[in-house]
Amino acid sequence: MSEPKADKASGQKGTIFTLWPLIDYRESPKERFSNLAILGPLFKYQRNGDDRDIALRPLFYRTERAEDRASSSYYLYPVATQEKTPETDNFEVLQLFRTSSYRKQESEPEREKSTMLFPFYISGDSKRHGHYRAFFPIYGNIYDRFWRDEYHFVMFPLYGSTVKKGTTTRHYLWPIFATTSGDNESGFDVFPLYGQSHKTGVYEKRFVLWPFYTSESTGLNTDNPTRRKFIFPLYASTDSPKKTSRSYLWPFFGYTEDRGKKQEEVDYFWPFITKVRGEKKSSDTFLPFYSHEVFSGGEKSWYLWPLYRHEELKSENFSQDQDRVLFFLYRDNHEFWPKDGNERRRTTMWPLFLYRKSPEGVSSFSFPAPVESILDKEGIEKDWAPLWRIYQRRWDQGGNSTSTLLWNLFWHERRGNDLAYEFFPFISYRDTARERELKFLKGLVSLKRDGGQEELSLFWLPFGLKWGDK
Q1: DSSP secondary-structure letter at 379?
Q2: From CA 302, how far away is CA 320, in angstroms rounded?
Q3: Cα–Cα 20 to 30 A to 307, which of 100, 102, 231, 379?
């Protein structure tokens, strides 16, 4: 039942113990590696040096990395995830509930903490304002989050206000009534009937029956003051020292001259027919038939959108070729690092296979792949993919390889000149520089060679008939 593997460097023997599908245990003392699998992919405990992985798929997967003092956990991914490092501790459920703590340095005695059950409860700490809480829609104060300096609300949408860079916007019966105030700044809205706001020397904005008429002047205190006007859908214009744009009967015709980017664009029934010419970008689009864009450092093309897409990125340090057919039906992503000669590749054909090659030269193939072409996520790879991968193979440039079918019902492994394989429970074979062993029915009949000595054993007995010199 136990098949030792010789470890030449240390003199220790590795171990393979299988009783498919109940248990599969493998150990390599030289590499400080062991892996225990129970019921195929359902339970896993792996030790690799000081690192640990434990899984009860698909309910739970946890990885611990000793060198970084970090861990990551997935709970029925993507339902819940947790990430821990010496500086951070984040726990998230469906991106709706989240708790996090963070400190910039380990010497800091306390962490900054926040909690969110979006959108109903949010709490956190602000260096300027201290601890805050919000119970949406009843009452709340939020600071330095969600792209604003401050949020305040009472019985929203009855009342709410935001502050950003000194500008305060107050809403009453949002989004109908609003006022704007700040340093030399004022305005009001009665949406969608009429609204206006201005800041002396900075901007002026106005709308009437939004979106049918809007006009604004922004950046008046910069070297690129910009004036925009929109009379929907008849006419739109943008004028500034760096840019001139016109649109007539949008989206049927449009023209843009971007002097800052040294680029011109003409649109006919945008986005279906467009033409762009510039120093850093040129493109021709005739959707859904053809689209081709050349830009600084690469190009991309669509043929019979969304049938086929090709994209290239090129630089001195990195290059990438990517091909896609019907978005996710087929996807091939090939990355290069020209200076050090490394490459990485990931190819998927839904729902048939996933092929990968790492920068270290290790390749892998798995079948089937019902999700991998759509979601390239670590949680899918660890928590779910082993459950449906009927066949897997892994190999490197040195000739080492491993293969498994039906979660090790059949497995094959080659390391250098050493070879081992098993088709449970009928036959197993192991061949090293010193030993060779062939078993039928897990040892009902066993033939073994150790050096010059041969041994025949029957009926799973640990001893047998020996001949020859050891």
Answers
A1: H
A2: 17
A3: 379
